[in-house]
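Example record

The entry below shows one chain as it appears in the dataset: sequence first, then structure tokens.
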Amino acid sequence: MQDSLTSVFVGRDAEVERVASLGRRAAVGEGTVVLVEGEPGIGKTALLDAAVASHAAGGLSVRRGAAKELQRQVPFAAVCSWLGSDRGSDPVRALLRSGDRVGDGAATHEFAITEAFLDLVDTWCAAGPVALVIDDAHWADRQSLTVLHRLTGVLNELPLLLILAARPLPRDTGFVALTAELVERRAPMLRLGALSEPASAELVRHMVGAIPGPGLMRQVVGAGGNPLYITELVASLMRDKAITVVADTADPVELADDERPSASLAGAIAQRLEFLSRSARQVLPMAAALGPTVYVAELAAVLDSPLLEIWNVVTEATDGGLLTRADSELVFRHDLIRQVLADQLPDSLRAGLLRRAGQILLATDAPIERIAYYLLAGEHELDKPTLDWLVTVADKLIVRAPEIAVPLLGRAADTADLGVRPILVRLHAQALLWNGRAAEAEALVRTALLNRPEDDIELRWLLMRACHARGDLREVVAVAEKALATSNLSVEDAGRFHGMSGLNNFFLGRFDAAEAAGAQALAIGDATDDPLATGYGLLTVGAVRYTHGYLDEALELSSRILAVFENGFGPDQFDPYVLYAHCLIELDRLADAEAVLHKAIGHNRRIHGVYLGANLVAKARLYALDGRWDDAIVECTSGQSVPDAFGYTPILHSLSALIGVHRGTFLPDPDTVPTPNDQLGSSGYGQFHPWVKALMLEARGEPRGALDLLVDAHQRLADGLTAPTLYYIFPDIARLAADVGDEDAARSVVAASAEQARRQPTAARTGTALLCRGVAERDPAVLRTAAADFRQAGRPLYEAQAHENAAVLFAADGRGSDARSALDAAVELYTGLGASWDTARAVARMRPYGIRRGVRGPRNRPKTGRAALTDTERKVAALVAEGFSNADIAAQMFLSRRTIQSHVSNIFAKLGVGSRRDIAATMSGG
């Protein structure tokens, strides 16, 4: 007979070939990702073993890692398993060693590490095709999932195969989101099912060295085709000498009913334990009950046993194949084995062990997450010292492990005595908010308020936070006003309540009430040194100044917010970045704004912040303004999948459609564009929906209808939340008013743009005012100055529109050479943006004057082939051909990695190739 513990891989030839074929594609530059799914023990790891061997033989550099259950809270733990001893990973290691960050540093640090990982993968791929493998990906930490998500977006441009192996269940929300992304991208999925009966028979034959007979196969069939079940079952029969071989056929021996070995996996594992010492058989089930990782010192303390005795048991279990060493930790070889072992203990004993483990660790410096895990798993009532500890560490636990904090605090609040219950209820509500479960938090607080006096200020504060997170702004104001009307409110409490009331009044468009409340909050915060009152006051007053167009004032106020919260943000889910980023965009400091938005988005994702949608829309808007339309589309698409209590999703649809109209790729019925709602997101960008509809009407030959829509939007929205960005539509109003001869509309937009530029003379706002005036006064020289201002602001679409309008006026004045020069400048900019509809409109407007484009380039760029490449794409393609990675190219060209990725994708499409090697071959072909 063969060694019962020998691992045999059978019945997966098709799956192995599928993964091998993906490796061959990666070797020629066609990167992809594959998800291998299957229940525990079904053979995922064995398939990975075969795949790794195949890929290594095929010339791929293979880096294999795994995620671990107890490292789900360790940032980047899963992807760090790829690093090994590679010296090239030193930048990543240095960032990982640089310690914990607080405040605005946390999100930035995570972003830097993520970018470093992507750079490292780029470097690996530049040296040759790569296969990256993650086993047990369902246990991956949030930060590793972010890296994996980012990698899926660049795979088609790299010689990279990404293999993820995971169980179907359970899964956390992060991995579910990644899986959904893979489904959307139509990534290959391999779902390992049960082995067929012939494959099961082949596995048994390898184990016993003979053909399994019908009696043995009847027992094997009961294992459900799971290779681990089959292996453990047959191994137990072999150890018990319960299999006999006659004429090359293996069958069970005839045993009395009470001697027949168990056919269950539990029985199989239990029989394996019979070969261990008595102490090992006693200790291992208790170790299994404590979790998948064995901490020898903790186990000895929990069992009150000598450390050496426990170490001897662990050594014996490792030698026997029950435990294995993973990095520096000892873990059970398979979670199924651990679960069966743990199930051998009575529930009362398991609960007692977990309770004792939690109590012992309370007296140590163990991570609070692990202590909380034991307390939660113990399912017992917490005593007073434990409750006191929980109250003390709750704020940290909520931030570090909210998924543990929620049920633990909930159970503690349900069972605690009346003295400590109120604070536990408040902490439970706070944990729910940090988990993004605002509706549950609101219900919990409202129930608690039924049994609490009216003066429970902290509960009312949590109620306001919950309502705000759900987008119920009017209820926030109502709760705040009721609390402020009480006589027992402290000065500090009054400050933050005024601040929250002011902010929500601002979002409701009640600017006078907002500014008054914000000023009160700010005054109280400054007097009492209360950061929340100060922060909310600054945010409210700054938002009002921003909306009224006084950007320098708003920027100064928002920069003070960052200073107030430089040492952290406390338990409130406050966003200190959102106003600052919006101010920077409107002040034409787009690079600075992008950097702040990276921080803001990371911060909001980490804390389940309510302003994630606002920051994503701002980022998409920034990319649309500076001409990175592919990046804007990416942000619009990804932003539609995030929680949206404030109603930003319709705006993302409209912005994406707006870019489509300019590109000539989105021209359906105007009524099919999603209609905005009355929530904050739509109120803040109320011009986008009518703007899309207007341009679609113009494209259909209805300029009068288009102008009416835009004029109506201007009149309705001029004094509301849309005011700071309403001028985006002014150039189109000016052009359409000139085309249809509407002098009233022209005068209105000239006055409005001039007033906005007077309040804050940024290059973009000054350029807008000049464009509107130049069109109305038919002065092409003014339009040339407007184009220069737009160039300074970094807004190529508006620069092109200024040139286009100047060309029309030059042509009307008979200045053909100037008209042609202005037209060429406009078309060159439009072409760089891919704005084919704008190009066609500009050329059509010049046709009545007999003006054609000059000699700067072909009238229509070819759609395919090398001639179809833009100048930037030619530079990128040349660097790709020289073997540079995307990160290297981005650094050389001072562009973002994502922009380079978009260029590479466009190059693939235009050249009709599928790999970077093909680009090199095409570019070298002359």
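Notes for this example: The longest strand covers residues 160-166. Residues 1-7, 100-105, 255-263, 855-860 have pLDDT under 50 and may be disordered.
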